[in-house]
Amino acid sequence: MLSEIHQFLPCATPEQWLDDALAHPDILLIDHANCEKKAASTAMNLIYRYTDDFDLLNKMSRLAREELRHFEQVLALMKQRGIDYRHVEAARYAAGLRAAVRNNSSVGGREQLVDILVVGAFIEARSCERFAALAPRVDAQLGDFYRSLLKSESRHYKDYLTLASRYAEPQQLAERIALFRQLEGELIVAPDQQFRFHSGPLAA
């Protein structure tokens, strides 16, 4: 699945970001916890908003449970390492992707739903790619944990993309994926003022 994810994403994580991650281990875990919590919240929001699709409901319910379990696992690692769960501002990444999500312009808001699902696929794919890139660079405990997340993160990416294909014609979906792929690549390579799990490399 990693090869498919690498093909789906517009670019690899910059080496500078990986160096930044090793230089900010506390923020890496704190923001990872935030990402898991937000992912669970996104899934729950979809469950509440779109109640007429049993496949979506089941996939998002499972995803929310898994993301909350990951959240608990990150908290446990932070506790072991003496890292306080303090507030950090969100990265511009997710907000930057969601800025291109269409408003409801069709019956049932399906165009908006397609975009939300595509954004979810990119976020999950990028998370998976970064876990795989970080695993051999961090300590053994953290590396094992990141490797343990790859299967579920790649499945989440696939679930989002599969659901999106139910609500858009293939050409329309391809166009939305292309739009978000370009935007995602720009967000990943552009310098950031603060390190976060989904940030670009830190500005010099």
TrEMBL record:
GO terms for molecular function: tRNA 2-(methylsulfanyl)-N(6)-isopentenyladenosine(37) hydroxylase activity. One of its GO terms (biological process) is tRNA modification. InterPro entries: Ferritin-like, Ferritin-like_SF, tRNA-Hydrxlase_MiaE. SUPFAM superfamilies: Ferritin-like. PANTHER family: TRNA 2-(METHYLSULFANYL)-N(6)-ISOPENTENYLADENOSINE(37) HYDROXYLASE, TRNA-(MS[2]IO[6]A)-HYDROXYLASE. This is tRNA-(Ms[2]io[6]A)-hydroxylase.
